[in-house]
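User: Round two. Same drill as before: sequence, then structure, for each protein.

Assistant: Same drill it is. First protein:
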Amino acid sequence: MSLSINAQDFEPGSKSFLLLKVAKMLDSSELYIPLHVIRGVSDGPVLGLLASVHGTEYYQNRIIRRIVNETSADEVNGTILAVPVANSLRSPTYPGTPPIPLKRPWTSRT
């Protein structure tokens, strides 16, 4: 079974990285999200991994980096699609991102 994303084909037993174009912004710039593709040597299930959905979760990025770096395509049956920054507009590296709140209002019920 073939796998193609954004007109790019992924061969069995390969590891790839691409920037996936997801939107055109109001200022005419393009919005991309990073995508790691680990295509196993044989067909099988697809595992999708997402991190930084809300923009302020950092530990999940480390987990995805570790999985991508330490996983060989030869030991995978199926495909791993890993997105380390799903919401790049809320990423700390994106201009205009508000700082992480140090204090949050917590309510308690008695």
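Second protein:
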Amino acid sequence: MKLRFGEVLARFHDGELSLAQQGSVSERLARDPCARAQLKRLEQTREALDTWANERSRSVNLADAIMAKLGGISERPSQPSELSLAFSKSRILALPT
């Protein structure tokens, strides 16, 4: 399956290409101003999405939002639940000896 150049650029940006593929993309970027512009737009888009996600995550308490959806509870319990205690114990048991 042949990838579109935009998909190859995304993989290049994410470090998911082989050394040979990276070299090929780097060569194209060196000689093609449109390819460089496309990479710059990709970087700007990713930065904008990261900024948006970070701002959104600060404005929402995920645990409280989930609890509110599950049972109308908007506050965290003062005592750990049985499930969280069981999870903690299972993590301790899974530690290498």
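The first helix runs from residue 5 to 13.

User: Perfect.
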